[in-house]
Amino acid sequence: MSAAVGSSFPAVAVGQHRRRGRAAAVQVRSSAMAAAAPILDDLRLRCATPLPLLRHVADAMAADMRAGLAADGAGELKMIPSYVYSLPTGDETGLFYALDLGGTNFRVLRVQLGGKDRRVIDSESEQVSIPKEIMHGTTEELFDFIAARLSNFVAKEGGTFRIQKGRKREIGFTFSFPVKQTSIDSGILIKWTKGFAVSGTAGKDVVACLNAAMERQGLDMSVSALVNDTVGTLAGAHYWDKDVMVAVILGTGTNACYIEKNDFIPKLLHLGPVTGNTIINTEWGAFSDGLPLTEFDRDMDAESINPGEQIFEKTISGMYLGEIVRRALAKMAQEHDLFGHSFADKLAQPFVLRTPHLCAMQQDRSNDLGEVELILRDVIGVNESSLAERRAIVDVSDCIVKRGGRLAGAGIAGILQKMESDSNGQVLGRRTAVAMDGGLYENYPQYRSYMTDAMVELLGPQDSEHVVVEHTKDGSGIGAALLAAANSKYAAQSST
Ligand code: ADP
Ligand code: MG
Questions:
Q1: Per residue in 384-394, pLDDT tens?
Q2: How far is the CA of 472 from the centre of ligand 2 (A)?
Q3: Is 463 a residue of the active site?
Q4: The whole model's pTM is what?
Q5: For labelling alongside 453, which of 54, 139, 190, 296 has CA 20 to 30 A away?
Protein backbone atom coordinates (compact mmCIF):
# COMPACT_ATOMS: atom_id res chain seq x y z
CA MET A 1 0.00 0.00 0.00
CA SER A 2 2.61 2.56 0.99
CA ALA A 3 4.70 1.66 -2.03
CA ALA A 4 1.74 2.40 -4.28
CA VAL A 5 1.11 5.75 -2.65
CA GLY A 6 4.78 6.66 -2.74
CA SER A 7 4.99 5.91 -6.43
CA SER A 8 2.04 8.16 -7.21
CA PHE A 9 3.85 11.15 -5.73
CA PRO A 10 7.32 11.03 -7.30
CA ALA A 11 9.30 13.83 -5.69
CA VAL A 12 11.17 14.49 -8.92
CA ALA A 13 8.03 15.44 -10.80
CA VAL A 14 7.45 18.34 -8.43
CA GLY A 15 10.62 20.21 -9.28
CA GLN A 16 10.19 19.92 -13.03
CA HIS A 17 7.34 22.39 -12.96
CA ARG A 18 9.08 24.96 -10.84
CA ARG A 19 11.06 27.99 -11.74
CA ARG A 20 14.66 28.09 -10.50
CA GLY A 21 14.30 30.64 -7.74
CA ARG A 22 11.89 28.42 -5.85
CA ALA A 23 14.06 25.33 -5.86
CA ALA A 24 14.89 25.37 -2.17
CA ALA A 25 11.31 25.82 -1.04
CA VAL A 26 10.19 23.11 -3.36
CA GLN A 27 12.68 20.68 -1.95
CA VAL A 28 11.41 21.23 1.56
CA ARG A 29 7.85 20.94 0.35
CA SER A 30 8.40 17.73 -1.58
CA SER A 31 9.70 16.13 1.57
CA ALA A 32 6.58 17.44 3.33
CA MET A 33 4.66 15.76 0.54
CA ALA A 34 6.43 12.49 1.20
CA ALA A 35 5.69 12.85 4.91
CA ALA A 36 2.01 13.50 4.18
CA ALA A 37 1.75 10.42 1.99
CA PRO A 38 1.12 8.02 4.90
CA ILE A 39 -1.95 10.07 5.84
CA LEU A 40 -3.30 9.63 2.35
CA ASP A 41 -2.41 6.00 2.52
CA ASP A 42 -4.27 5.66 5.79
CA LEU A 43 -7.25 7.62 4.46
CA ARG A 44 -7.53 5.29 1.45
CA LEU A 45 -7.46 2.33 3.78
CA ARG A 46 -10.12 3.69 6.11
CA CYS A 47 -12.40 4.85 3.31
CA ALA A 48 -12.10 1.64 1.35
CA THR A 49 -15.39 0.08 0.28
CA PRO A 50 -14.54 -3.41 -0.93
CA LEU A 51 -17.38 -5.67 -1.97
CA PRO A 52 -17.80 -7.47 1.40
CA LEU A 53 -18.21 -4.11 3.14
CA LEU A 54 -20.74 -2.95 0.54
CA ARG A 55 -22.57 -6.22 0.95
CA HIS A 56 -22.75 -5.70 4.69
CA VAL A 57 -24.12 -2.17 4.19
CA ALA A 58 -26.77 -3.34 1.69
CA ASP A 59 -27.84 -6.20 3.98
CA ALA A 60 -27.92 -3.94 7.04
CA MET A 61 -29.97 -1.37 5.11
CA ALA A 62 -32.50 -4.08 4.19
CA ALA A 63 -32.61 -5.38 7.79
CA ASP A 64 -33.09 -1.88 9.14
CA MET A 65 -35.92 -1.26 6.67
CA ARG A 66 -37.68 -4.36 7.97
CA ALA A 67 -37.19 -3.27 11.58
CA GLY A 68 -38.61 0.19 10.85
CA LEU A 69 -41.61 -1.30 9.05
CA ALA A 70 -42.32 -3.55 12.05
CA ALA A 71 -42.42 -0.82 14.68
CA ASP A 72 -41.59 2.84 15.07
CA GLY A 73 -38.17 3.26 16.64
CA ALA A 74 -37.12 -0.37 16.11
CA GLY A 75 -34.39 0.54 13.64
CA GLU A 76 -32.41 3.56 12.54
CA LEU A 77 -34.68 4.12 9.55
CA LYS A 78 -38.02 5.73 10.37
CA MET A 79 -39.79 4.09 7.37
CA ILE A 80 -42.56 6.67 7.36
CA PRO A 81 -45.78 5.66 5.57
CA SER A 82 -46.80 8.37 3.09
CA TYR A 83 -50.49 7.42 3.05
CA VAL A 84 -50.21 7.59 -0.72
CA TYR A 85 -52.46 4.71 -1.74
CA SER A 86 -53.34 6.18 -5.14
CA LEU A 87 -50.46 6.88 -7.46
CA PRO A 88 -51.21 8.92 -10.56
CA THR A 89 -52.39 6.61 -13.34
CA GLY A 90 -52.12 8.97 -16.29
CA ASP A 91 -55.88 9.32 -16.58
CA GLU A 92 -56.02 12.46 -14.43
CA THR A 93 -57.49 15.54 -16.05
CA GLY A 94 -57.85 19.15 -15.05
CA LEU A 95 -55.86 21.92 -13.40
CA PHE A 96 -53.80 21.22 -10.28
CA TYR A 97 -51.35 23.21 -8.22
CA ALA A 98 -48.29 22.36 -6.18
CA LEU A 99 -46.36 24.15 -3.51
CA ASP A 100 -42.84 23.03 -2.66
CA LEU A 101 -41.37 24.15 0.65
CA GLY A 102 -38.07 22.59 1.63
CA GLY A 103 -35.35 25.20 1.82
CA THR A 104 -34.71 28.88 1.52
CA ASN A 105 -36.89 29.03 -1.59
CA PHE A 106 -40.36 27.79 -2.21
CA ARG A 107 -41.85 26.98 -5.56
CA VAL A 108 -45.39 27.27 -6.79
CA LEU A 109 -46.46 25.40 -9.86
CA ARG A 110 -49.56 24.65 -11.88
CA VAL A 111 -50.16 21.89 -14.34
CA GLN A 112 -52.97 21.23 -16.79
CA LEU A 113 -53.52 17.50 -17.19
CA GLY A 114 -55.13 16.01 -20.27
CA GLY A 115 -55.55 12.36 -19.35
CA LYS A 116 -54.12 9.31 -21.08
CA ASP A 117 -53.44 10.78 -24.48
CA ARG A 118 -52.53 14.36 -23.76
CA ARG A 119 -50.83 13.90 -20.37
CA VAL A 120 -49.23 17.16 -19.20
CA ILE A 121 -50.70 19.75 -21.55
CA ASP A 122 -48.87 22.62 -19.92
CA SER A 123 -47.14 23.59 -16.70
CA GLU A 124 -45.59 26.71 -15.27
CA SER A 125 -43.88 27.59 -12.03
CA GLU A 126 -42.44 30.45 -10.02
CA GLN A 127 -39.79 30.48 -7.35
CA VAL A 128 -39.90 32.77 -4.35
CA SER A 129 -37.14 33.23 -1.81
CA ILE A 130 -38.14 33.33 1.82
CA PRO A 131 -36.84 36.34 3.75
CA LYS A 132 -34.79 35.60 6.88
CA GLU A 133 -37.27 37.35 9.15
CA ILE A 134 -40.03 35.05 7.90
CA MET A 135 -37.83 31.99 8.55
CA HIS A 136 -37.44 33.24 12.11
CA GLY A 137 -40.96 34.56 12.58
CA THR A 138 -44.27 33.08 13.68
CA THR A 139 -46.26 30.28 12.07
CA GLU A 140 -48.92 32.69 10.90
CA GLU A 141 -46.36 35.03 9.34
CA LEU A 142 -44.77 32.17 7.39
CA PHE A 143 -48.00 30.66 6.12
CA ASP A 144 -49.52 34.08 5.37
CA PHE A 145 -46.41 34.90 3.33
CA ILE A 146 -46.71 31.64 1.41
CA ALA A 147 -50.46 31.96 0.87
CA ALA A 148 -50.07 35.55 -0.36
CA ARG A 149 -47.46 34.53 -2.95
CA LEU A 150 -49.55 31.57 -3.98
CA SER A 151 -52.56 33.84 -4.34
CA ASN A 152 -50.51 36.12 -6.61
CA PHE A 153 -49.57 33.17 -8.75
CA VAL A 154 -53.15 31.91 -8.96
CA ALA A 155 -54.28 35.38 -10.05
CA LYS A 156 -52.05 35.05 -13.14
CA GLU A 157 -53.77 31.83 -14.25
CA GLY A 158 -54.90 31.94 -17.89
CA GLY A 159 -54.28 30.59 -21.37
CA THR A 160 -54.29 26.81 -21.38
CA PHE A 161 -54.85 26.68 -17.63
CA ARG A 162 -58.48 26.32 -16.76
CA ILE A 163 -60.29 25.13 -13.64
CA GLN A 164 -63.33 22.94 -14.24
CA LYS A 165 -66.66 24.56 -13.44
CA GLY A 166 -67.88 24.03 -9.90
CA ARG A 167 -64.49 22.84 -8.64
CA LYS A 168 -62.26 24.23 -5.99
CA ARG A 169 -58.58 24.47 -6.94
CA GLU A 170 -56.59 21.64 -5.38
CA ILE A 171 -52.97 21.67 -4.38
CA GLY A 172 -50.25 19.14 -3.59
CA PHE A 173 -47.98 20.35 -0.80
CA THR A 174 -44.37 19.14 -0.86
CA PHE A 175 -43.06 19.74 2.60
CA SER A 176 -39.52 18.50 3.17
CA PHE A 177 -39.22 18.69 6.94
CA PRO A 178 -39.78 15.90 9.46
CA VAL A 179 -43.50 15.31 9.66
CA LYS A 180 -45.62 12.73 11.41
CA GLN A 181 -48.09 12.08 8.66
CA THR A 182 -51.58 11.13 9.78
CA SER A 183 -53.34 10.88 6.40
CA ILE A 184 -52.67 11.85 2.79
CA ASP A 185 -53.77 15.39 3.62
CA SER A 186 -52.55 15.98 7.14
CA GLY A 187 -49.28 15.82 9.05
CA ILE A 188 -47.82 17.14 12.27
CA LEU A 189 -44.50 18.99 12.12
CA ILE A 190 -41.99 17.25 14.38
CA LYS A 191 -39.37 20.00 14.14
CA TRP A 192 -38.07 22.60 11.75
CA THR A 193 -34.64 21.96 10.19
CA LYS A 194 -32.44 23.61 7.52
CA GLY A 195 -32.28 27.00 9.18
CA PHE A 196 -36.01 27.43 9.82
CA ALA A 197 -36.86 28.59 13.33
CA VAL A 198 -40.53 29.46 13.02
CA SER A 199 -42.24 29.61 16.38
CA GLY A 200 -45.38 27.69 17.23
CA THR A 201 -45.47 25.21 14.33
CA ALA A 202 -44.00 22.10 15.95
CA GLY A 203 -46.85 19.81 17.00
CA LYS A 204 -49.28 21.41 14.56
CA ASP A 205 -50.82 20.05 11.36
CA VAL A 206 -49.04 21.97 8.61
CA VAL A 207 -51.91 21.36 6.17
CA ALA A 208 -54.34 22.99 8.59
CA CYS A 209 -51.88 25.90 8.92
CA LEU A 210 -51.76 26.34 5.13
CA ASN A 211 -55.53 25.94 4.69
CA ALA A 212 -56.16 28.56 7.38
CA ALA A 213 -53.71 30.99 5.75
CA MET A 214 -55.31 30.47 2.32
CA GLU A 215 -58.65 31.22 3.87
CA ARG A 216 -57.29 34.41 5.43
CA GLN A 217 -56.09 35.39 1.93
CA GLY A 218 -59.52 34.69 0.51
CA LEU A 219 -57.94 31.98 -1.65
CA ASP A 220 -60.50 29.28 -2.36
CA MET A 221 -58.15 26.33 -2.58
CA SER A 222 -57.56 23.14 -0.61
CA VAL A 223 -54.68 20.78 0.04
CA SER A 224 -55.34 17.29 -1.36
CA ALA A 225 -51.94 15.75 -0.71
CA LEU A 226 -49.09 16.43 1.69
CA VAL A 227 -45.87 14.80 0.49
CA ASN A 228 -42.19 14.57 1.20
CA ASP A 229 -39.96 15.59 -1.75
CA THR A 230 -38.77 12.01 -2.38
CA VAL A 231 -42.39 10.86 -2.48
CA GLY A 232 -43.21 13.63 -4.97
CA THR A 233 -40.22 12.60 -7.07
CA LEU A 234 -41.37 8.98 -7.13
CA ALA A 235 -44.96 9.90 -8.03
CA GLY A 236 -43.79 12.28 -10.77
CA ALA A 237 -41.46 9.71 -12.32
CA HIS A 238 -43.98 6.87 -11.98
CA TYR A 239 -46.48 8.93 -14.00
CA TRP A 240 -44.20 8.59 -17.05
CA ASP A 241 -42.72 5.18 -16.34
CA LYS A 242 -44.66 2.53 -14.46
CA ASP A 243 -41.45 0.62 -13.71
CA VAL A 244 -40.28 3.34 -11.30
CA MET A 245 -40.33 1.68 -7.88
CA VAL A 246 -37.73 3.70 -5.97
CA ALA A 247 -36.81 7.40 -5.77
CA VAL A 248 -33.55 8.75 -4.40
CA ILE A 249 -32.43 12.30 -3.70
CA LEU A 250 -28.71 12.99 -3.76
CA GLY A 251 -28.35 16.73 -3.32
CA THR A 252 -27.41 18.83 -0.33
CA GLY A 253 -28.90 16.04 1.76
CA THR A 254 -30.13 12.59 0.84
CA ASN A 255 -33.21 10.44 1.20
CA ALA A 256 -34.96 7.55 -0.52
CA CYS A 257 -38.46 6.16 -0.81
CA TYR A 258 -39.97 3.15 -2.54
CA ILE A 259 -43.24 1.39 -3.24
CA GLU A 260 -44.06 -1.18 -0.56
CA LYS A 261 -46.84 -3.72 -0.34
CA ASN A 262 -49.17 -2.84 2.50
CA ASP A 263 -49.10 -6.33 3.97
CA PHE A 264 -45.33 -5.96 4.48
CA ILE A 265 -45.88 -3.03 6.84
CA PRO A 266 -46.64 -4.72 10.19
CA LYS A 267 -46.85 -1.40 12.02
CA LEU A 268 -49.92 -0.48 9.93
CA LEU A 269 -51.76 -3.77 10.35
CA HIS A 270 -53.77 -2.41 13.29
CA LEU A 271 -55.60 -0.34 10.68
CA GLY A 272 -57.09 -3.63 9.48
CA PRO A 273 -56.16 -5.69 6.43
CA VAL A 274 -55.02 -3.40 3.66
CA THR A 275 -54.47 -4.48 0.12
CA GLY A 276 -52.41 -2.65 -2.43
CA ASN A 277 -49.27 -0.57 -2.09
CA THR A 278 -48.05 2.59 -0.49
CA ILE A 279 -44.92 4.69 -0.71
CA ILE A 280 -42.58 4.43 2.25
CA ASN A 281 -40.26 7.34 3.00
CA THR A 282 -37.20 5.57 4.42
CA GLU A 283 -35.39 8.64 5.84
CA TRP A 284 -32.26 6.63 5.06
CA GLY A 285 -29.95 9.49 5.98
CA ALA A 286 -30.17 8.20 9.56
CA PHE A 287 -28.54 4.87 8.69
CA SER A 288 -25.09 4.17 10.17
CA ASP A 289 -24.46 0.41 10.44
CA GLY A 290 -21.00 -0.66 9.26
CA LEU A 291 -20.00 2.57 7.53
CA PRO A 292 -16.24 3.04 7.07
CA LEU A 293 -15.74 6.29 8.98
CA THR A 294 -12.57 8.29 9.62
CA GLU A 295 -11.48 10.69 12.33
CA PHE A 296 -12.51 13.48 9.93
CA ASP A 297 -16.09 12.20 9.81
CA ARG A 298 -16.21 11.83 13.57
CA ASP A 299 -14.89 15.34 14.19
CA MET A 300 -17.27 16.86 11.65
CA ASP A 301 -20.18 15.00 13.23
CA ALA A 302 -19.21 16.04 16.75
CA GLU A 303 -19.15 19.71 15.70
CA SER A 304 -22.39 19.50 13.72
CA ILE A 305 -25.79 20.79 14.86
CA ASN A 306 -27.04 17.18 15.11
CA PRO A 307 -24.17 15.06 16.49
CA GLY A 308 -24.70 11.33 16.22
CA GLU A 309 -27.55 11.79 13.75
CA GLN A 310 -27.80 11.44 9.95
CA ILE A 311 -24.48 9.59 9.64
CA PHE A 312 -25.24 8.06 6.21
CA GLU A 313 -26.23 11.53 4.99
CA LYS A 314 -23.02 13.00 6.39
CA THR A 315 -20.99 10.36 4.54
CA ILE A 316 -22.64 10.46 1.11
CA SER A 317 -24.41 13.79 0.51
CA GLY A 318 -23.31 17.04 -1.12
CA MET A 319 -23.36 19.22 1.94
CA TYR A 320 -20.55 17.27 3.59
CA LEU A 321 -18.12 15.80 1.03
CA GLY A 322 -16.14 19.03 0.66
CA GLU A 323 -15.92 19.50 4.40
CA ILE A 324 -14.56 15.99 5.00
CA VAL A 325 -11.86 16.65 2.40
CA ARG A 326 -11.06 20.01 4.00
CA ARG A 327 -10.52 18.32 7.35
CA ALA A 328 -8.17 15.75 5.84
CA LEU A 329 -6.20 18.48 4.06
CA ALA A 330 -6.02 20.55 7.22
CA LYS A 331 -4.41 17.65 9.03
CA MET A 332 -1.92 17.05 6.24
CA ALA A 333 -1.09 20.73 6.29
CA GLN A 334 -0.80 21.06 10.05
CA GLU A 335 1.16 17.94 10.75
CA HIS A 336 3.25 17.71 7.60
CA ASP A 337 3.55 21.22 6.25
CA LEU A 338 1.68 20.42 3.08
CA PHE A 339 1.27 23.77 1.26
CA GLY A 340 4.01 25.45 3.31
CA HIS A 341 2.74 28.03 5.80
CA SER A 342 0.80 30.64 3.89
CA PHE A 343 -2.70 29.19 3.86
CA ALA A 344 -3.65 28.33 7.44
CA ASP A 345 -6.53 30.72 8.12
CA LYS A 346 -8.80 29.85 5.25
CA LEU A 347 -8.20 26.11 5.37
CA ALA A 348 -9.23 26.15 9.02
CA GLN A 349 -12.70 27.51 8.18
CA PRO A 350 -15.41 24.86 8.30
CA PHE A 351 -17.27 24.37 5.01
CA VAL A 352 -15.08 26.73 2.88
CA LEU A 353 -14.32 23.87 0.56
CA ARG A 354 -17.58 22.78 -1.07
CA THR A 355 -18.50 19.68 -3.01
CA PRO A 356 -18.70 21.59 -6.34
CA HIS A 357 -15.04 22.55 -5.79
CA LEU A 358 -14.08 18.89 -5.43
CA CYS A 359 -16.03 18.20 -8.58
CA ALA A 360 -14.31 20.98 -10.54
CA MET A 361 -10.89 19.74 -9.36
CA GLN A 362 -11.69 16.20 -10.43
CA GLN A 363 -12.61 17.37 -13.94
CA ASP A 364 -9.20 19.01 -14.40
CA ARG A 365 -7.44 16.99 -17.11
CA SER A 366 -4.61 19.44 -17.74
CA ASN A 367 -0.98 18.41 -17.24
CA ASP A 368 -0.30 21.05 -14.62
CA LEU A 369 -3.70 20.81 -12.88
CA GLY A 370 -4.24 24.52 -13.41
CA GLU A 371 -7.88 24.44 -12.30
CA VAL A 372 -6.88 22.71 -9.06
CA GLU A 373 -4.26 25.41 -8.50
CA LEU A 374 -6.88 28.14 -8.97
CA ILE A 375 -9.30 26.54 -6.54
CA LEU A 376 -6.56 26.05 -3.96
CA ARG A 377 -5.64 29.70 -4.28
CA ASP A 378 -9.12 31.19 -4.37
CA VAL A 379 -10.88 28.89 -1.95
CA ILE A 380 -8.38 27.80 0.66
CA GLY A 381 -5.79 30.53 0.23
CA VAL A 382 -2.87 28.38 -0.93
CA ASN A 383 -0.95 30.80 -3.11
CA GLU A 384 1.61 28.34 -4.31
CA SER A 385 1.21 24.62 -4.77
CA SER A 386 3.40 21.97 -6.30
CA LEU A 387 2.05 19.53 -8.85
CA ALA A 388 2.45 16.71 -6.33
CA GLU A 389 0.41 18.65 -3.81
CA ARG A 390 -2.31 19.32 -6.36
CA ARG A 391 -2.37 15.65 -7.23
CA ALA A 392 -2.65 14.77 -3.56
CA ILE A 393 -5.67 17.04 -3.15
CA VAL A 394 -7.37 15.37 -6.10
CA ASP A 395 -6.55 11.99 -4.58
CA VAL A 396 -8.03 12.93 -1.20
CA SER A 397 -11.16 14.21 -2.95
CA ASP A 398 -11.45 11.05 -4.98
CA CYS A 399 -11.12 8.91 -1.89
CA ILE A 400 -14.04 10.64 -0.11
CA VAL A 401 -16.21 10.90 -3.21
CA LYS A 402 -15.61 7.29 -4.12
CA ARG A 403 -16.65 6.17 -0.65
CA GLY A 404 -19.78 8.37 -0.82
CA GLY A 405 -20.82 7.21 -4.28
CA ARG A 406 -20.22 3.54 -3.56
CA LEU A 407 -22.14 3.68 -0.27
CA ALA A 408 -25.05 5.41 -2.01
CA GLY A 409 -25.01 2.56 -4.53
CA ALA A 410 -25.00 0.01 -1.70
CA GLY A 411 -28.01 1.74 -0.13
CA ILE A 412 -29.97 1.53 -3.38
CA ALA A 413 -28.95 -2.10 -3.84
CA GLY A 414 -30.13 -2.79 -0.27
CA ILE A 415 -33.58 -1.35 -1.03
CA LEU A 416 -33.84 -3.32 -4.28
CA GLN A 417 -32.73 -6.54 -2.60
CA LYS A 418 -35.28 -6.10 0.17
CA MET A 419 -38.04 -5.58 -2.41
CA GLU A 420 -36.79 -8.50 -4.46
CA SER A 421 -36.73 -10.96 -1.59
CA ASP A 422 -40.35 -10.08 -0.75
CA SER A 423 -41.56 -10.36 -4.32
CA ASN A 424 -39.95 -13.43 -5.87
CA GLY A 425 -38.33 -11.99 -8.92
CA GLN A 426 -40.76 -9.15 -9.51
CA VAL A 427 -38.12 -6.51 -8.99
CA LEU A 428 -34.76 -7.72 -10.28
CA GLY A 429 -36.21 -10.30 -12.66
CA ARG A 430 -37.69 -7.52 -14.81
CA ARG A 431 -37.07 -3.89 -15.69
CA THR A 432 -37.09 -1.72 -12.57
CA ALA A 433 -36.39 2.01 -12.53
CA VAL A 434 -34.90 4.21 -9.82
CA ALA A 435 -35.84 7.88 -10.16
CA MET A 436 -32.96 10.12 -9.13
CA ASP A 437 -32.96 13.80 -8.33
CA GLY A 438 -30.40 16.13 -6.78
CA GLY A 439 -27.50 18.36 -7.69
CA LEU A 440 -24.82 15.94 -6.48
CA TYR A 441 -25.91 13.12 -8.77
CA GLU A 442 -26.61 15.52 -11.60
CA ASN A 443 -23.30 17.35 -11.59
CA TYR A 444 -20.67 14.96 -10.32
CA PRO A 445 -19.79 12.36 -12.99
CA GLN A 446 -17.28 10.48 -10.82
CA TYR A 447 -19.75 10.18 -7.96
CA ARG A 448 -22.33 8.91 -10.41
CA SER A 449 -20.11 6.22 -11.83
CA TYR A 450 -18.86 5.09 -8.41
CA MET A 451 -22.49 4.72 -7.40
CA THR A 452 -23.36 2.65 -10.46
CA ASP A 453 -20.20 0.51 -10.10
CA ALA A 454 -21.24 -0.46 -6.60
CA MET A 455 -24.76 -1.33 -7.73
CA VAL A 456 -23.41 -3.56 -10.49
CA GLU A 457 -20.95 -5.25 -8.12
CA LEU A 458 -23.70 -5.94 -5.59
CA LEU A 459 -26.54 -6.92 -7.89
CA GLY A 460 -24.38 -8.86 -10.32
CA PRO A 461 -24.15 -8.34 -14.07
CA GLN A 462 -27.46 -10.01 -14.86
CA ASP A 463 -29.80 -8.38 -12.36
CA SER A 464 -28.19 -4.98 -12.71
CA GLU A 465 -29.04 -5.05 -16.44
CA HIS A 466 -32.67 -4.75 -15.36
CA VAL A 467 -32.12 -1.72 -13.15
CA VAL A 468 -32.20 1.72 -14.73
CA VAL A 469 -31.41 4.93 -12.91
CA GLU A 470 -33.50 7.76 -14.38
CA HIS A 471 -32.50 11.31 -13.72
CA THR A 472 -35.61 13.38 -13.03
CA LYS A 473 -34.82 17.02 -12.51
CA ASP A 474 -37.14 18.79 -10.06
CA GLY A 475 -39.75 16.08 -10.49
CA SER A 476 -41.11 16.54 -6.98
CA GLY A 477 -43.13 19.66 -7.84
CA ILE A 478 -45.07 18.11 -10.71
CA GLY A 479 -45.21 14.90 -8.66
CA ALA A 480 -47.03 16.72 -5.86
CA ALA A 481 -49.52 18.23 -8.32
CA LEU A 482 -50.07 14.75 -9.78
CA LEU A 483 -50.65 13.35 -6.30
CA ALA A 484 -53.18 16.10 -5.66
CA ALA A 485 -54.90 14.96 -8.87
CA ALA A 486 -54.73 11.26 -7.98
CA ASN A 487 -56.13 12.05 -4.53
CA SER A 488 -58.57 14.67 -5.72
CA LYS A 489 -61.71 15.25 -3.71
CA TYR A 490 -63.45 14.94 -7.08
CA ALA A 491 -61.54 11.76 -8.01
CA ALA A 492 -64.67 9.61 -8.39
CA GLN A 493 -65.98 11.95 -11.09
CA SER A 494 -62.71 12.45 -12.94
CA SER A 495 -61.82 8.78 -13.18
CA THR A 496 -64.89 8.01 -15.26
P1 ADP B 1 -31.22 20.48 -2.56
O2 ADP B 1 -30.67 19.15 -2.25
O3 ADP B 1 -30.77 21.52 -1.60
O4 ADP B 1 -32.69 20.48 -2.80
P5 ADP B 1 -30.04 20.27 -5.19
O6 ADP B 1 -30.72 19.01 -5.48
O7 ADP B 1 -30.02 21.31 -6.27
O8 ADP B 1 -30.60 21.02 -3.92
O9 ADP B 1 -28.55 19.93 -4.80
C10 ADP B 1 -27.64 20.93 -4.45
C11 ADP B 1 -26.39 20.24 -3.98
O12 ADP B 1 -25.78 19.54 -5.06
C13 ADP B 1 -25.35 21.20 -3.49
O14 ADP B 1 -25.48 21.41 -2.10
C15 ADP B 1 -24.05 20.48 -3.81
O16 ADP B 1 -23.66 19.67 -2.73
C17 ADP B 1 -24.38 19.59 -4.96
N18 ADP B 1 -23.86 20.20 -6.19
C19 ADP B 1 -24.34 21.26 -6.85
N20 ADP B 1 -23.57 21.55 -7.91
C21 ADP B 1 -22.58 20.65 -7.92
C22 ADP B 1 -21.45 20.42 -8.76
N23 ADP B 1 -21.19 21.18 -9.82
N24 ADP B 1 -20.67 19.40 -8.45
C25 ADP B 1 -20.92 18.62 -7.41
N26 ADP B 1 -21.93 18.79 -6.57
C27 ADP B 1 -22.76 19.79 -6.82
MG1 MG C 1 -34.08 19.31 -3.66
A1: 889 999 999 99
A2: 11
A3: no
A4: 0.90
A5: 296
